[in-house]
DNA sequence: TTAGTGACGTCCC
DNA sequence: AGGGACGCCACTA
């Protein structure tokens, strides 16, 4: 690992993401704040990138950006298609490639 | 060490 | 509405 502090941060991020219920979504910034690291939205992306595996227990697909859009295409367009598929399977509706956060945002 | 980068967010126009 | 300019901060070369 590059540093043990980031390892613990990642651990906190995973714990929060694991709490997102089926059929709901959260933003990167929301996850960072809930994990106790405000303004670290980008770190959430880095952390999830390491968990990007088909057999991952983590509901990484329920994390989207503050615009209600998917951001994964910059890295892996194929993975983004999977993310959208998983979300739609949970009953989340896309309107013009966008999710209505007022309706679907997770509120702990 | 420094500079560039990025699964982001907010502000401004 | 939607796009651009910054701000942010860990990571990488």
Short descriptors:
108 residues, mainly alpha, Arc Repressor Mutant, subunit A, two-stranded parallel ribbon, globular, DNA-binding, MethylDNA_cys_MeTrfase_DNA-bd
The radius of gyration over CA amounts to: 13 Å
Report the order of strands and helices.
Answer: HEHHEHH
The CATH architecture name reads Orthogonal Bundle
> For this structure, what is the CATH class?
Mainly Alpha
Biggest sheet layout: 2 strands, parallel
CATH topology: Arc Repressor Mutant, subunit A
Unreliable residue runs: none
Helix content: 40-55%
Tally of individual helices: 5
Mean pLDDT: 91
Summing up helix and strand content along with how strands pair, one would put the structural category as mainly alpha
Name given to the CATH homologous superfamily: Winged helix-like DNA-binding domain superfamily/Winged helix DNA-binding domain
**Strand fraction band?**
under 5%
- Summed up, the domain count is 1
Main-sheet strand order equals 1-2
Query: What is the terminal separation in angstroms?
Result: 31 Å
Global shape? globular
Keywords: DNA damage
Protein name: MGMT family protein
GO molecular function, one term: catalytic activity
Organism: Rhizobium hidalgonense
Account of the protein in words:
The protein is mainly α. The protein has a single domain, classed as Winged helix-like DNA-binding domain superfamily/Winged helix DNA-binding domain (Arc Repressor Mutant, subunit A, Orthogonal Bundle), CATH 1.10.10.10. Helix content is 44%, strand content 4%. The chain contains 5 helices and 2 strands, in the order αβααβαα. A two-stranded parallel sheet has the order 1-2. The longest helix has 14 residues. The chain is globular and about 40 Å long. It starts with a helix and ends with a helix. The model has no long low-confidence stretch (mean pLDDT 91). The protein binds a DNA duplex (13 and 13 nucleotides) through α2, α3, β2 and α4.
